Amino acid sequence: MRWVWDANRGSPVRENATISLGSDGNFVLAEANGTIVWQTNTANKGVVGLDTLPNGNIVLYDSTGRYVWQSFDHPTDTLLVGQFLRATGGPTRLVSRLSEAEPLNGPYSFVMEQRHWAMYYQTKNTQKPMMYYKSSEFGNGKGALAFLGFYSAPENDGNYAFELGFVYNMSKSDSSGTSILSRPKYNTTYSMLRVDADGNLRIYTYDENVDWGAWEVTYVLLDRSEDAYAHASECKLPKRCGSLGVCEDFQCVACPTPKGLLGWSKGCAPPTLPPCNGGANVDYYKVDGVEHFTSEYNEGSGPVSLAQCKDKCSKDCKCLGLFYRAESSKCLVVPELGGLVKVANASHVGYIKISK
C-alpha cells in the first residue's frame, strides 16, 4: 500500500486524535482535546455522506449525489488517474514532501503554467523558485492551459496494452489533446504521478498480475538511461550531487575545490563565506566546462564582462557562485550551487565564491 494524499501535511496529530463527519456535514480532524487541525469547511452545505471512490478520490456528497467536496481538488504531491490541475477554481501545482518519512512541504514543485508544465526548486536563499525543467508547449499556439489531467487509457495500435500521460484543454482555443509519457505493456489503471522527495517526477503503476514487486516505476522524467521517454539526464536534478558536485554521465564525478577537482563524496560542499560586507573580502575559483542545473532555461543577464559578473555576485550576499558564457558574455548568478552539469563547451565556466 502507498500513501497518495495528505490532509494535514506539516501538522501531524498526536495520540487519541479523531476524524469525524459531523451532523452539520463538516469533515474534521481534531486533537484529543478538541483542537481542530484540519477541516473541509463544508458545514451546512447539504452534505449527507462520505465515500472513497475506486479511483482514490475521497468525496463528500449531497442528497442528489453532487460532490460538495473532493480530495481530487486538493492534491499534495500526487495525481491519480483522472485527477486534474486547473488554471481557475483549482490547484495548479504539486509540492513534494521533505522526505519519504516526513510529511512536510519539500522544496520541489510541479507547476501548470500558460502553455507548458515545469519543475521548480525553492531554496531558502531566494524568494523566486528556480526552474530546472520545462515541457514542450501544448496546443496550437493559441490560448493557455485550462486544465491538465493525468490519464491512463488502452493503446490504439495494439503494440502496447495501455498508455500513460497528460490530457489537456486550452482556454480561448479549440485545442485539446493528449501528451503520452509512457506505454507499459499491461493495464495501468492503478497508476499515480508523483513529485518525489528527490525532485524527480515519476509514474508508479500497480501490476495486479504479479505476486511480488507489484509497484513498478513506469516513467521517470530525469533518468540515467538513454531511453526514448527519458526527457533529460538525472544530472539536471538540483541536488543529484548534494550541495555541490560535478555531474557527468549520470554520476557525481568530482568535487570542485580551490585546489582543483577532487574525488566527490557526500561531504562536498560550498566554501564557508565570511560576513557579507559588499564583496570586499571574497574571491572566486574557476570550474571549466560546467553549467548550473538551471542554465538550460536561464542564461542570465548580459552581455557583461566577466569582471562585471563577478562584481554583481560579490555585492549579492545570497550569491554563492556564477556561471559565465564567454561566447555570449551572459552572466548567471545563483543562490544555490548543487549539481554542476558537465558540458563539452569549455567556454561555459563556473566560478564559486570563496573567502579572500
TrEMBL record:
<dbReference type="Pfam" id="PF01453">
    <property type="entry name" value="B_lectin"/>
</dbReference>
<keyword id="KW-0732">Signal</keyword>
<protein>
    <recommendedName>
        <fullName>Bulb-type lectin domain-containing protein</fullName>
    </recommendedName>
</protein>
<feature type="domain" description="Bulb-type lectin">
    <location>
        <begin position="1"/>
        <end position="73"/>
    </location>
</feature>
<keyword id="KW-0325">Glycoprotein</keyword>
<dbReference type="InterPro" id="IPR036426">
    <property type="entry name" value="Bulb-type_lectin_dom_sf"/>
</dbReference>
<dbReference type="InterPro" id="IPR001480">
    <property type="entry name" value="Bulb-type_lectin_dom"/>
</dbReference>
